[in-house]
Design brief:
The protein is an alpha/beta fold and 477 residues long. The protein is built from 15 helices and 23 strands. The strands form 6 sheets. The chain has a 7-stranded mixed sheet with strand order 15-16-17-14-13-19-20, sandwiched between helices. It has a 6-stranded mixed sheet with strand order 10-9-8-11-12-22, with helices on both faces. α2 runs antiparallel to α4. It is globular, with a radius of gyration of 23 Å.
Length: 477
Amino acid sequence: MTIHQNLIAGEWVGSDATRNINPSNTGDVVGEYARGSIEDTKAAIAAAKAAFPSWSRSGILERHAILRKTADEIVARKDELGRLLSREEGKTLAEGIGETVRAGQIFDFFAGECLRLAGEVLASVRPNIGVEITREPVGVIGIITPWNFPIAIPAWKIAPALCYGNTVVFKPAELVPGCSWAIVDILVRAGLPKGVLNLVMGKGSVVGQTMLDSPDVHAITFTGSTGTGKRVASASVEHNRKYQLEMGGKNPFVVLDDADLTGAVEAAVNSAFFSTGQRCTASSRVIVTEGIHDRFVAAVGERLKGVVVDDALKAGTHIGPVVDETQLKQDTDYIEIGQKEGAKLAFGGELLKRDTPGFYLQPALFTEATNDMRISREEIFGPVAAVIRVKDYEEALAIANDTSFGLSSGIATTSLKHATHFKRNAEAGMVMVNLPTAGVDFHVPFGGRKGSSHGSREQGKYANEFYTTVKTAYTLA
């Protein structure tokens, strides 16, 4: 099997490799991908530093053309890349293709942003002096991405970094290097100069730590666990570098008595269980007022009976497998914890057997949960959700906000009054009304509050706040 190598200073290098396994069929080897060393990572950082002066002053048409060509190829190959994504991560094929298209849209958006780089010209308070405010690239950007969105998250970090004239050292998650390798390969063939983008696959304790330790990495954007995010922050403070963190979530979905029952059930099931619940925006706390509670729980149970858990590539599959054995154990451990805490396992939670060996878990729905239980406070990152019964809207809002996280928050209601109040008072970076908590557009800001995020927002034009630095220049006329 061909080893997919690391890209350092424009050259494909590396022979030590690990195998990537399909979670829908553990006998299926997706590919072999190089495992980078400390020396590889240092070489990649040096290459990015050397390439920065030229790339940071490159023409906007050059950047536009490269990003646009990348976007076009990703979309043209959406079926192929979507299938690769589903094989290595476990999303259904429809979700894999959809995520691939989104990656193409992200590159297309930032290709356009290359042509919209703007500043300000202001009058000084002093006579005969002009003031120009411009944005310039930061330098070498370290990019560390997670396994749950193996093509979209790399896209929404790499595209703006390159758009605004930065150079990149990119470390994808060990579980899902395939899509990341494909994006880098496409960018290279689109004409990206040597050293501008460097790919170093491998262990976080090796590649990621070397990036954190280097004073030549001027900014780091990280998506992943809260614990690792704290280490990124600590190391970045040491080097006085910019850092951007997207971490966990314990997102609430509120269902009020006046909600449309069918719509509320669909939104809740999508929020909690689709993509196997492996989304930082997934809602694992469903907060339901008592007037609709019993009908809602019964309807969700009926809806879950029709959900098909199977091979991600098989037609008719609604939910694929959990990503790997470690994550599966975490999910089943939390199911056991919930039962010991006194919550009622109203549906699912069983390991499933399918035609191919994989990490299959039936969605688990708890009822009679309280907000002080671990299953209501800690991020599980799997198809496990807990229903919390509350008296009214005021209690629902209080429970929704009673969390150390603040990424996404949703409500199902036909009341304009409550919808408006919730949008203003939900302590989250993103609020959904009569929609799933997961699922955001590619051209608008993404991010949260509290323990979910740190730093400026990702995606859309707001990305320039992280990937650029502001310069103010004065000129005497």
